[in-house]
Write a structure and sequence with these properties.
2 domains; D-amino Acid Aminotransferase, Chain A, domain 2; D-amino Acid Aminotransferase, Chain A, domain 1; 31% strand; 281 residues
């Protein structure tokens, strides 16, 4: 269940000429709300600012966006609950055609959802995944950004229907492992952590950034590099992360099985101490 709001209050429709609807011309952030507060808010705002710069959209001040989130939470009745806010910023209504000038006053929408928690067993023993046939295009002009155009993820995620798998892992057009349909990936080999480079495609998740930063504060380095399917299968442990569930060990991908290993558990403990309560075993 969700409720949608803009600056004027509850809404149930948008203009047919809305460029976010017509072309996916906009950005979004999916923000975890815990005890009425946004998690990793500054990271979400940093990513949105970078996306606005790329799309020539003026980014509203963070305090104005947070005021809108607070209003939406209050009006939804979920302000004190464990919930999710989907913050959408678009180029607004426009005439037909792809071209447009820079947008000084973007449209902003707030969707409030009840959060769905991963099971305790998933945190303890890991999740099952598959490798999606859908590949991600490389050298995208929007690499790393969270734009409204997520058709590759839609196609990849649809491959999970009926499989019982928690997540699908995606590769790029040249066969490098990039990320999950809704998560970022980390691999552990001989105790060393790596995560795929997102320079050519994929989404730079805020939890990915939080993992890398939190580990660095503990003196643990994360290598950002190209990772092949063979590299992943040769690893000792793998885990995925996103803004909602934090970190989850991967127990299985196709025929390959991993333990919920000691490095992953150490990462989860560090994340739990940093405020990601779901990771506390």
């Amino acid at each position: 269940m969700s409720d949608w709001f803009d600056a004027k209050g509850a809404i149930d429709a948008v203009e047919i000429s809305e460029r976010g609807f017509q072309y996916g011309d906009g950005l979004f952030e999916t923000i975890a709300i815990r005890d009425g507060q946004p998690r990793l808010w500054n990271y979400h705002m940093d990513r949105m600012a970078a996306g606005c710069a790329r799309l020539a959209l003026h980014k509203p001040a963070a305090e104005d966006l947070w005021a809108g989130v607070e209003t939406a939470l209050q009006q939804s009745g979920l302000a004190e609950d464990r919930c999710v806010v989907k913050l959408i910023l678009t180029a607004g209504a426009g005439e037909r055609g792809y071209g447009r000038s820079a947008v000084d006053v973007p449209s902003v929408y707030y969707g409030v959802y009840t959060a769905t928690a991963a099971s305790k067993e998933s945190y303890r023993n890991g999740i099952e995944t598959l490798v999606c046939a859908t590949r991600l295009a490389i050298h995208s002009a929007t690499a790393g950004m969270k734009t409204l155009n997520r058709l590759e993820q839609v196609l990849a995620r649809s491959e999970l229907a009926g499989t019982g798998m928690f997540e699908g892992l995606t590769m790029d057009a040249e066969g490098e492992v990039i990320c999950g349909t809704m998560s970022n990936l980390f691999v552990v080999h001989d105790g060393r952590l790596s995560t795929p480079s997102l320079a050519r495609c994929g989404v730079e998740g805020v939890m990915r950034r939080h993992v890398i930063t939190s580990l660095a504060e503990q003196g643990i380095q994360t290598d950002i590099r190209s990772i092949t399917l063979a590299d992943m299968n040769d690893s000792d442990e793998i885990f995925v992360c996103n803004s909602q569930f934090g970190v989850l060990p991967v127990r299985r991908c196709m025929e390959k099985i991993w333990p919920a290993g000691t490095v992953t558990k150490e990462v989860m403990a560090i994340l739990a101490d940093s405020g990601i309560a779901e990771c506390r075993l």
